[in-house]
TrEMBL record:
It is found in: Cytoplasm. Keywords: Cytoplasm, Isomerase, Porphyrin biosynthesis, Pyridoxal phosphate. The modification N6-(pyridoxal phosphate)lysine is found at residue 268. Homodimer. It is an enzyme of class 5 (isomerase). The gene is hemL. Pathway: Porphyrin-containing compound metabolism; protoporphyrin-IX biosynthesis; 5-aminolevulinate from L-glutamyl-tRNA(Glu): step 2/2. GO terms for cellular component: cytoplasm. It comes from Succiniclasticum ruminis. InterPro entries: 4pyrrol_synth_GluAld_NH2Trfase, Aminotrans_3, Aminotrans_3_PPA_site, PyrdxlP-dep_Trfase, PyrdxlP-dep_Trfase_major, PyrdxlP-dep_Trfase_small. This is Glutamate-1-semialdehyde 2,1-aminomutase. One of its GO terms (biological process) is protoporphyrinogen IX biosynthetic process. One of its GO terms (molecular function) is pyridoxal phosphate binding. NCBIfam families: hemL, PRK00062.1.
């Protein structure tokens, strides 16, 4: 069994200086209990911690590391860029190169603006949609996460078309009032909102294949129906592919489901593990962005040369080596093995997968929305999670997160993971 004594003592110290000891809440292991390992390095598919343990990593920094940790093409690109200066506050050719590459990979994007986080991308996309349409309301889906900007930290009030309610103290009622929330995969609920408030709705923002309540897939025709509805009412469709971009498929979930959004948000993989995100879309809409248009948005470190170098290296390698197609096949092998292990132990699970993403839901029935996800057996998840961690498999510490695989994950990693899962599911069944 792994010991975490050094990690635990640094965690105790961390809590004195950083709220909860972490710089992003899920890292604290709150929902599964116990102390998180403190990481000293990552290489390929593995993480190494302060106590000398190593783990097969299915978190991958919550998605960005499509090629695995410290992939040489990314590391070398960053080192080379760093030697030439870390930030200029002036335009560079690397920004143009990454913008061109992104527009080529995601054809609905004619133009793109780089920012530093997914939160900034979705926040800016909403401001742009409001500016362009001259409308105030936005619609989001319950259980989808788009970062922590005020307008998006809102949950549904009672009744499908009532105003939203702040999800966090500090978000004003006024802000929440223009965010309407509906359940995912429920077209009538969305139609009702549009019937009542359609002329006030600037945009619908959605994860097309949500990954922030665990991985949930859209019902047949659902995304296309949303596209039709937004067009009918003159509202924009913002597709948030911060997680699904270059993960569900090379062109994102919009390419898989054949929907053309007005604005796309990207993040995670686009930066190869450095802080980059982006929003972009149709030229006519992007021309509203400052300095060409009146919608203001800016950033001291936006388009940072190290981050651009990492993004260009990661996306170029992905494209030239057909990484997404390879990972889609590899993911099927792993998830089939996990499902078989659960079945053998008599533990009911659902294992949806898409591209290089998957979730093991402890549920007897298919998970189609947030309500289904929150009905999962969280005690079973906790037992599974800790057993896997003890056996050297690092999973996201919440039932409501998505697991990721990378190009660095080997057959041996998968075999070890499946063997560990057999033990973990047996514990769950006890
Ligand atoms: N949108 C989606 C779909 C995400 O999954 C996330 C983060 O997990 C965000 C936006 C926010 O991105 P960031 O954490 O970079 O602010």
């Amino acid at each position: 069994m792994n010991t975490l004594s050094k990690s635990s003592s640094v965690f105790a110290e961390a809590k004195l200086y950083i709220p909860g000891g972490v710089n992003s809440p899920v890292r604290s292991f709150r929902s599964v209990g116990g102390n998180p390992p403190f990481i000293t390095r990552g290489e390929g598919s593995k993480l190494y911690d302060l106590d000398g343990n190593n783990y097969i990593d299915y978190v991958l920094s919550y998605g960005p590391l499509l090629l695995g940790h410290a992939h040489p093409v990314v590391t070398e690109a960053v080192q080379e860029a760093a030697a030439k200066g870390t930030s200029f506050g002036a335009p560079t050719g690397a920004e143009v190169a990454l913008a061109k590459l992104v527009c080529e990979l995601v054809p609905s994007m004619d133009m793109v603006r780089m920012v530093n986080s997914g939160t900034e991308a979705t926040m800016s996309a909403i401001r742009l949609a409001r500016a362009y349409t001259g409308r105030d309301c936005i619609v989001k889906f319950i259980g989808c996460y788009h970062g922590h900007s005020d307008a998006l930290l809102v949950h549904a009030g009672s009744g499908a078309t009532t105003f939203g309610v702040p999800d966090s103290p500090g978000v004003t009622k006024g802000t929440a009032e223009t965010t309407l929330s509906v359940p995912f995969n429920d077209l009538p609920a969305l139609e009702n909102v549009f019937a009542e408030k359609g002329k006030e709705i600037a945009a619908v923002i959605m994860e097309p294949t949500p990954g922030n309540m665990g991985l949930v897939l859209p019902k047949d025709g659902y995304l296309q129906a949303i596209r039709k509805l937004t067009k009918k009412y003159g509202s924009l469709l913002i597709i948030d592919e911060v997680m699904s971009g270059f993960r569900s498929a090379q062109g994102g979930s919009q390419s898989l489901y054949h929907i053309e959004p007005d604005i796309t948000c990207l993040g995670k993989v686009i930066g190869g593990g450095l802080p980059v995100a982006a929003y972009g879309g149709k030229r006519e809409i992007m021309n509203w962005v400052s300095p060409v248009g009146p919608m203001y948005q800016a950033g001291t470190l936006s388009g940072n040369p190290l981050a651009m170098a990492a993004g260009i290296a990661a996306l170029t390698y992905m494209k030239e080596n057909d990484v997404c197609a390879t990972l889609t096949k590899r993911n099927a092998e792993l998830t089939d093995a996990l499902k078989a292990a659960a079945d053998a132990a008599g533990v009911p699970v659902q294992v949806p997968r898409l591209g290089s993403m998957f979730t093991v839901f402890f549920s007897e029935k298919e998970v189609t929305n947030y309500e289904d996800a929150t009905a999962c057996n969280l005690d079973a998840f906790r037992i599974y999670f800790h057993s896997m961690l003890e056996q050297g498999v690092y999973l996201p510490p919440s039932q409501f997160e998505t697991n990721f695989i990378s190009l660095a994950h080997s057959d041996e990693d998968f075999a070890k993971t499946a063997a560990a899962a057999k033990v973990a599911f047996t514990k769950v069944a006890e």
